[in-house]
């Protein structure tokens, strides 16, 4: 969701003189962890565990995280960034109800100060003698900086530089940068759980790193008292007990001229079932974005915010109420919105492991509470939400974007995206290897928007008109009525993303064609490095005798369903159709409902339910709806 505060790099610091310690730094990342642990007398398992929770041991080619963190140890250098308003995404109406349109929200000022948790690189530089440049771009130097910080925190706590990992619980909690005791404890608990279990993976630049398990590890419980980490949970916060949550309420207030802001009271799930959970990024930092949610005049709201560095969560709106978050009133009325600190592209190419873990637990908790299926047809990115009318399609948002790791996210939810079916299955699930899949994009640099983005891991594949690499991208007549799809990081017109399921239209060698927005769309899918996996299931196709089928951005009732006093909401098809012979994967039935909520008082609100049956399908990059009477449902094996 578009917020504020995109960040751009300023001039980097010059390289300093290289010390003897710097000259001896190993090139191998595993060796770098071992060397830094020995130099600063930090247990190697602790150093590896902290790094995994921050970056999964990735160097990210020296690019910053969503909150200005660099390298395997996520050393934060927000002081080296400037802030500016962000204009990358579409200008959607977050409420998405054309019966009462909102003006675009006003841009907000930048924060007056940068918290210490976003400036850890300064201390690391002082402790190691490394320049900011090397701490950003040299992973061995970055690991030294993180080890030095851990040792510094341990000394500040009056604790020994012990080789017993359990003695380092307090320093690990401090490393999170969290001011909230629950957030610091969540981070430390996750690190020590990982140390007990062990881990191993190959990073996106080919580095194999292993953390051997340390079973039977006992944390020193005194740190819980000494650091005030005895976790207490505010009454009424809707979060699992294992993560750090607080209640920071969004503004709900009567405004002049019978207006109000900036969400709607409801009584879900009694009034309506929650069917979707929407994943956003803030296009900004945690605290300034939260302040927007406390402004009743700001034209958007959301239920939860997730902080990048440590996974801390703030809940703003009860899940029974409807936030103005997804740009589609039908989806808003049936969803919960979760904002994540970060940026789709500009200045922030990756999200921390702590954020992924905390958010995944929240989503699993909410999905179980509300009966939301853990699949990509119901756990949607903001970029998967359809426009409501032909006129709103172009302005819909694109976050969290191609750099969100959906496969890892679902793994953490306990709902991995597994293949289902044989190699010639009639449907496929998009699932490129995130670490090695680095498609071309441009638009990551605001100051040079035409420049190519650096090669970055992504969970998306490009879709072409023919089975060859130089073929044009398929077109999206809603996003670009008279033009071509773009390779912009902000344009998903010709992209399919991890977890999305599509019916197969054709296969030729290493290429697979799927049905997408009423056309065949080809993507490279070689057998030795597949970018999709088999996925059997139900599909829809036009009923016999129907030449074309319209699609819709919302499943609104027929006119006869509206009681007196409730204006009819027109059932308007979008600009897309599909024809006989085409097939689209079925997500399931969609409730035929309209939530009438245009006043400050809950007593005036009501749900209009119709008899028309709708089905949700994966039509393009976004989900859409068809009338059941227009299609037949078949099994694609």
Automatic annotation (TrEMBL):
EC number: 3.5.1.28
Catalytic activities: Hydrolyzes the link between N-acetylmuramoyl residues and L-amino acid residues in certain cell-wall glycopeptides
All copies of domain N-acetylmuramoyl-L-alanine amidase, residue ranges: 263-401
SMART domains (UniProt xref): Ami_2 (SM00644)
InterPro entries: Amidase/PGRP_sf (IPR036505), Amidase_domain (IPR002502), NAMLAA_amidase_2 (IPR051206)
Region (Disordered) location: 84-118
CDD domains according to UniProt: PGRP
Short name of any one Pfam family annotated for the protein: Amidase_2
Keyword terms of this UniProt record: Cell wall biogenesis/degradation, Hydrolase, Signal
Signal peptide boundaries: 1-23
UniProt keyword Cell membrane, yes or no: no
PANTHER family in UniProt: N-ACETYLMURAMOYL-L-ALANINE AMIDASE AMID (PTHR30417:SF1)
Name this polypeptide is given: N-acetylmuramoyl-L-alanine amidase
Organism encoding this protein: Nonomuraea antimicrobica
């Amino acid at each position: 969701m578009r917020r504020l505060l995109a960040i751009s790099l300023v001039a980097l610091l010059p390289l300093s003189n290289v010390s003897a310690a710097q000259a001896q730094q190993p090139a191998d990342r595993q060796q770098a962890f071992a060397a830094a642990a020995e130099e600063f007398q930090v247990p190697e398992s602790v150093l590896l565990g902290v790094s995994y929770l921050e970056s999964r041991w990735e160097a990210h080619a020296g690019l910053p995280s969503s909150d200005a963190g660099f390298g395997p140890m996520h050393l934060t250098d927000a002081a080296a960034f400037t802030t500016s308003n962000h204009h990358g995404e579409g200008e959607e109406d977050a409420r998405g109800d054309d019966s009462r349109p909102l003006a675009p929200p006003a841009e907000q000022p930048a924060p007056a100060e940068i918290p210490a948790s976003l400036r850890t690189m300064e201390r690391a530089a002082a402790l190691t003698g490394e320049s900011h440049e090397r701490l950003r771009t040299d992973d061995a130097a970055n690991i030294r900086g993180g080890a030095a910080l851990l040792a510094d925190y341990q000394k500040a706590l009056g604790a020994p530089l012990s080789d017993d990992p359990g003695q380092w619980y307090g320093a690990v909690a401090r490393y999170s940068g969290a001011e909230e005791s629950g957030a610091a404890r969540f981070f430390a608990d996750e690190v020590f759980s990982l140390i007990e279990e062990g881990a191993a993976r190959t990073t996106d630049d080919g580095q194999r790193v292993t953390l051997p398990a340390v079973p039977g590890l006992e944390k020193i419980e005194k740190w819980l008292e000494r650091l005030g980490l005895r976790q207490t949970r505010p009454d009424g916060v809707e979060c699992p007990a294992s993560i750090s949550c607080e209640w920071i309420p969004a503004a709900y207030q009567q405004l002049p001229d019978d207006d109000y802001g900036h969400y709607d009271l409801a009584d879900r799930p009694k009034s309506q079932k929650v069917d979707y959970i929407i994943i956003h990024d803030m296009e900004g930092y945690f605290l300034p974005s939260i302040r927007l949610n406390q402004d009743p005049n700001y034209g958007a709201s959301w239920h939860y915010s997730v902080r990048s560095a440590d996974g801390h969560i703030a809940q703003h709106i009860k899940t029974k109420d409807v936030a103005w978050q997804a740009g589609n009133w039908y989806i808003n009325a049936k969803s919960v919105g979760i904002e994540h600190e970060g940026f789709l592209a500009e200045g922030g190419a990756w999200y921390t492991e702590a954020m992924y873990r905390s958010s995944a637990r929240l989503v699993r908790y909410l999905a179980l509470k509300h009966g939301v299926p853990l699949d990509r047809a119901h756990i949607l990115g903001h970029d998967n939400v359809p426009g409501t009318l032909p006129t709103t399609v172009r302005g819909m948002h694109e976050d969290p974007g191609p750099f969100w790791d959906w496969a890892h996210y679902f793994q953490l939810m306990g709902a991995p995206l597994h293949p289902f079916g044989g190699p010639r299955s009639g449907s496929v699930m998009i699932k490129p290897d995130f670490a090695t899949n680095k498609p071309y994009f441009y638009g990551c640099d605001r100051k040079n928007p035409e420049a190519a983005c650096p090669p970055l891991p992504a969970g998306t594949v490009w879709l072409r008109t023919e089975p060859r690499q130089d073929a044009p991208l398929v077109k999206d007549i809603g996003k670009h009525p008279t033009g071509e799809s773009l390779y912009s990081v902000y344009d998903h017109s010709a992209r399919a993303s991890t977890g999305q399921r599509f019916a197969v239209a054709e296969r030729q060698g290493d290429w697979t064609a799927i049905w997408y927005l009423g056309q065949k769309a080809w993507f490279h899918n070689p057998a030795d490095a597949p970018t999709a996996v088999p996925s059997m299931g139900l599909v829809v196709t036009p009923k016999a005798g129907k030449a074309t089928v319209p699609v819709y951005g919302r499943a609104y009732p027929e006119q006869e369903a509206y009681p007196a006093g409730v204006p009819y909401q027109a059932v308007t098809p979008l600009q897309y159709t599909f024809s006989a012979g085409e097939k689209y994967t079925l997500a399931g039935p969609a409730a035929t409902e309209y939530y009438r909520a245009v006043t400050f008082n809950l007593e005036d609100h009501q749900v209009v339910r119709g008899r028309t049956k709708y089905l949700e399908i994966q039509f393009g990059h976004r989900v859409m709806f068809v009338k059941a009477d227009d299609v037949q449902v078949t099994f694609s094996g």
